[in-house]
User: Fold this.
Amino acid sequence: MSGTERSAGVTVQVRTRDGSYEVIVERGVLRELPRLVNERVRAERFAVISDDNVAPTHGRAVMEAGVDAGCDMALFTFPAGEASKSRKSWSVLTDELLDAGFGRDSCVIAVGGGVTTDLAGFVAATFLRGVPVVQVPTSYLAMIDASVGGKTGVDVRAGKNLVGAFHPPRLVVADPEVLVTLSLAERAQGLVEAFKHGAILDSAYFASLEDRVVDLLAAEPSASAPAVARSVELKAAVVSEDEFEGGYRQILNFGHTLGHALEAASDYELGHGSAVALGMLLEARLGERLGVTEPGTFARLRGPLEALLGPIDGASVDPEAAATYLRTDKKVRGGQPRVVLLRRLGEVDPGEGWSHEVPQEALVEALAAGLEGS
Amino acid sequence: MSGTERSAGVTVQVRTRDGSYEVIVERGVLRELPRLVNERVRAERFAVISDDNVAPTHGRAVMEAGVDAGCDMALFTFPAGEASKSRKSWSVLTDELLDAGFGRDSCVIAVGGGVTTDLAGFVAATFLRGVPVVQVPTSYLAMIDASVGGKTGVDVRAGKNLVGAFHPPRLVVADPEVLVTLSLAERAQGLVEAFKHGAILDSAYFASLEDRVVDLLAAEPSASAPAVARSVELKAAVVSEDEFEGGYRQILNFGHTLGHALEAASDYELGHGSAVALGMLLEARLGERLGVTEPGTFARLRGPLEALLGPIDGASVDPEAAATYLRTDKKVRGGQPRVVLLRRLGEVDPGEGWSHEVPQEALVEALAAGLEGS
Assistant:
């Protein structure tokens, strides 16, 4: 992984078992997409996949630019929303591509937020046993997190992201200019992952995000472009080290063990970012109580996260429901939950394999206590 | 790829991008399965998947041997038949595993024929973004072909095997003794792929199969064990060379361009083996007519294939329907069908990238002519 300056952006190289791919973060780069795709992907036909919110704007723009450049490109749409991250939508899109005559010489271009990059990525991963995918994230969350690392998949009855595949993209193109089309709430939710990157890997980055939280929420490109680029660099370094979540990659789960439980317990009423922010705070306080995390880290995290999201108290979540979720978490290995704990801001405690086995009771207590008395 | 003798069998190493796996072909080896799995797979829980024909016999035997050896193992069943190679069955099995609490520390053990190895393999490929699979093929077809090479997947409305993933097994265990439980027709259909391996790679092997065709059909272990072992060696060499069907692996498609069209045109009334046998004969004759294949090859193939399957005339297939399928084949690259042509028995003509672009009209004519006048 290395970051090199472009005219007005940053290109980050992500290593995979099969080679590597580039993540290009650059203002206005969306207009260069046809050239970039043609340079990097040998395909005869391109299927642009967007949800029905993004399709009329960015989805259509990508397709039209492609067609203007002489590409054989068609647009496929699915209903916006997490409910579309399903085996059903995956089946429908797959059949639509087949009915339209797409074959092995095809490439999928995913244009949208995290639902789209995950869903379209899984379509590509399984279409004729795998065709290339180009990820064009249009939200903070997708730029910072979902489009880098090769995770694709859908939700099922038993939980989120339980069915999927590792399918690294051939190219990721992130244009910070499109972030202005997001709602304020979407921006805030997505930026939580940027603060997480700072919290686990780079305290100076964390501080720089804190300094510019208002501009970041406004999607001011002078703030958003370097933030997206730095988060991509940090995440790329992690997934280049450990593509399949065998060890080091787990550090990206900071805030997520409890965050996922809180999100599920709220029946996904709580936004992913809010849930992870609350999870980060609870896991920081747990770490302090266990003597693993430097005292004061919890308080250090809380300020900027509340600047981003407003007051965080977790009062809306039933701790019992979250505890029940934790007890039945399908991803748990050997029955004991594991939690990523910070050593201090900007550094994860190595623990055993970059996480700590924490007794379920301690986690349930941490949930039940909430943020009271902090 | 190398074959080394075991006590009473052969172990073949297959290279993959991530390392390698072993295919063990040995009489009675099924009884050693728990030990072999424990040596090679680090998993806490094992899901044995079989269809409801195989489950009461081999499926149950594998599970009980595992439980006796102290493994946490459970048996999951689906209705026998090609109709189960579907997204629906894949969803049901996935949900059953999740409901039973299987997590990332799980391993799938597929026990059965080609439908089972493909379907259970795809469950494993996509379960929590991939868990290990051990393939325990119980039919000739699955031992010789389906369980080696990492192809997994299901059929969809538009065609067979159009959705899936490359997911190499962690281990393949083939016990020729179980072949006696197959019907004569199943044995005959599966053995076609063995003759194909001889036809494309090893004329001496082809001759040895021809010599023992009666014993092979009887599943006499002194004939079946070395045949399965040799076919596995030959296929392993090919897929070690080209895991993802980029080039050399295409030679395994000999007989399959026309075979698939015939199979689809018959609405899958024609068995896969019969369709491939007819495809091999038609493609051999096409090769002779194009001056690519040594004259006499067609006749050389026909004798043993008819000894296996009875008279082959293709009269039951509508050539127009097969031609229509060819014209809409979803796997076709850039619109032109490609066919693998022999140079002579035991050797594929390199063509361009191991196949020849043949005008659709020539293929349609070959189909329409059938085997008349040969």
Summary: Chain A touches chain B through 41 residues (CB under 8 Å). DSSP finds 14 helices and 14 strands in chain A. The longest helix of chain A spans residues 221-241.
